[in-house]
Amino acid sequence: MGEAKTYFFRDMSVMLGRSMRHIFRSMDTMLTVCITPIAMMLLFVYVFGGAIETGTGNYVNYLLPGILLMAIASGVAYVAYRLFIDKQRGIMERFHSMPIARSTVLWGHVLTSVVSNVISIVVIILVALLMGFRSSAGVLSWLAVAGILVLFTLALTWIAAIAGLTGKTMEGASAFSYPLIFLPFISSAFVPTDSMPLIVRVFAENQPVTSIVETIRSLLSNQPVGTEIWVALAWCLGIMLVAYFFAVRAYNRIVA
């Protein structure tokens, strides 16, 4: 059993290294993931921020959680793209003809998504600091924020894996991310839900982004999170487990 675990982690580290090399060889990928959320943050803070009433004195503090979720939703699209390319070029079959743990091929892409998204998040937070973002959160609150963002990344990454493994075209495999990127707009990420029409407000208050945004916002401002954190965790874990199940099924059909 111990030897099997050793081989699994060794194989997974090789697959992770392979996927990370692809990322660093095409840095424009990470730049693209960062540029759009940063541009949105600049636009909303310096153009629309003065006209949006949020009840807070610092709009960038209010806006940042939603921007981070948008960045993650944008970043996971590349997982679908890379998985589709591996499937289309027969690379998966080549790996499966080797004496390696089969699941590590898929996990390599998933962990690469987590690492690359963490890098993007750090870059965006640094830009937000230059724009005036300030947080009174302690170490534990920051760790809680990091944990929620990683869970959210894993949840969306497994959705991306489904798209990449089942997509018929490259465009179809990547298109799944568009609704996810724009979902924060219909939430409390940019404006309080109280200002929305009834039907839109009901949807905004009962979709996952709002609870996740509100939790992160409360943690960063060192405010009580209440029950929102449990709702956010339930959404993240629920989506992740369901998406993982279907992604593994799709993967097993390919490698069977």
From TrEMBL:
- Tell me how this protein sits in the membrane: Multi-pass membrane protein
Which Pfam family is an annotated match for this chain, by its short name? ABC2_membrane
Q: Which domain of life is it from?
A: Bacteria
Q: Which UniProt keywords apply?
A: Cell membrane, Membrane, Transmembrane, Transmembrane helix, Transport
Q: Where does it live in the cell? A: Cell membrane; Membrane
Q: Which GO terms describe its cellular component?
A: ATP-binding cassette (ABC) transporter complex
* Ranges where the ABC transmembrane type-2 domain occurs: 28-254
Q: Where are the transmembrane segments?
A: 30-50, 62-84, 105-133, 139-163, 175-193, 229-251
One GO MF term: ABC-type transporter activity
What protein family does this chain belong to? Belongs to the ABC-2 integral membrane protein family.
Q: Which PANTHER family match?
A: NODULATION PROTEIN J (PTHR43229:SF2)
Its protein name is Transport permease protein
Tell me which species this is from. Answer: Paenibacillus pasadenensis
Q: What is the lineage of its organism?
A: Bacteria, Bacillati, Bacillota, Bacilli, Bacillales
